[in-house]
Write a structure and sequence with these properties.
189 residues; alpha+beta; Nucleotide Exchange Factor Grpe, Chain A, domain 2; 3-stranded antiparallel β-sheet; 3-stranded mixed β-sheet; elongated
Length: 189
């Protein structure tokens, strides 16, 4: 394409030669005066229709945004609902155990059996929601999952867990509480 100025007559003449069906400049003006009004009205109607469509889409987007905000707020508010529902049977079992321990015919063996069943129920509920116990005896010390509270001379390999003072817990591979451990160190004989 060149940068030389184009004369209006040259453009009109070129268009008429390229497209013989296109009316000449004078013919266009006559057409606009005669039937052009309906074409302008038709274009205005189409424009109004598109403007309404844009407004409807904007309103719909705003509704979607509000709905999403409500859903997020609801999810935050009730995120623990299923977890709490899972823990309620454990609470019921503990209450029954306490009530049973107060009866005359309660034996230590029955109370212990009830406590073990309740603990098993609690562990199952925690596992259902992705909570795992960390009890690493014999494993290599891992500072990401273990907290060393002391070191102890040991005949085995150094830097391994020889005792667990308190279990740790992971929630879907994220440490909730590190295990408190005793770590081995080489014997100095």
């Amino acid at each position: 394409m060149t940068d030389k100025p184009v004369d209006q007559d040259d453009m009109t003449q070129g268009m008429n030669e390229e497209n013989p069906e296109q009316p000449a400049e004078g013919e266009v003006e006559q057409g606009a005066q005669g039937g052009g009004t309906s074409e302008v009205e038709e274009l205005k109607a189409k424009l109004a229709e598109k403007e309404e469509e844009v407004l409807r889409i904007a309103a719909e987007m705003q509704n979607v945004r509000h709905r999403a905000e409500r859903d997020v707020e609801s999810a935050r508010k009730f995120a623990l609902e299923r977890f709490v529902e899972g823990l309620l049977p454990v609470v019921d079992s503990l209450e029954l155990g306490i009530e049973a321990a107060g009866k005359e015919n309660a034996t230590l063996e029955k109370i212990r059996e009830g406590d073990e069943m309740t603990l098993k129920m609690l562990i199952q509920t925690l596992e259902k929601f992705g909570v795992q116990a960390v009890h690493p005896i014999g494993e290599r010390f891992n500072p990401d999952h273990h907290q060393a509270i002391s070191m102890q001379p040991h005949d085995g390999e150094p830097d391994h867990v020889v005792d667990v003072m308190q279990k740790g817990y992971l929630l879907k591979d994220r440490v909730v509480r590190p295990a408190m451990v005793v770590v081995s160190k080489p014997n100095k004989d």
